[in-house]
Amino acid sequence: MLLLTGCVATPKPDSEKITVLWGDALEMLHCEDKGVVVGSQGHWYDYWLIDDGVLTQGAVNELRNKAMQLEADTVLLYAPKPFSTSVTFLAKAYRCHP
């Protein structure tokens, strides 16, 4: 089990500073659109061995890591995608602070 959790995305340094929001895109009108990011964790062969919370945190970590590569400081989550073997989030990345 410990080996499998090692396959879950971990946050890169400073990626935890990226704000993750649920909400309305209208809130982001004052922000610069940096693109779409996807965070996904879990596979058909291991999802039953890894806790849902660990998979969810890994998917969020992956979102933050990808947003950081785009020089974003905020991600606005869309509704999660309903997969039974993984956790997947689709989000828009934004730069809201200079």
Radius of gyration: 14 Å
Largest sheet: 4 strands, mixed
Instruction: Give unreliable regions as ranges.
Output: 1-5
Helical content band: 10-25%
- Helices and strands: which structural class? alpha+beta
Strand order of the largest sheet: 1-3-4-2
Q: Name the beta content range.
A: 25-35%
Describe the global form: globular
Measured between the Cα atoms of the first and last residue, the distance is 42 Å
> For the residues shown, what is the average pLDDT?
81
Order of helices and strands: HEEHEE
Structure summarized in a few sentences:
Helix content is 22%, strand content 28%.
Question: Can you offer a commentary on this structure?
Answer:
This protein is α+β, with helices and mostly antiparallel strands and 98 residues long. The protein is 22% helix and 28% strand. The longest helix is centred in the middle third of the chain and has 18 residues. The N terminus is likely disordered.
Tell me the layout of helices and strands.
Blueprint: H1 2-5, E1 19-22, E2 32-41, H2 52-69, E3 74-77, E4 87-95
Parallel strand pairs: 1-3
Antiparallel strand pairs: 2-4, 3-4
Features:
98 residues; alpha+beta
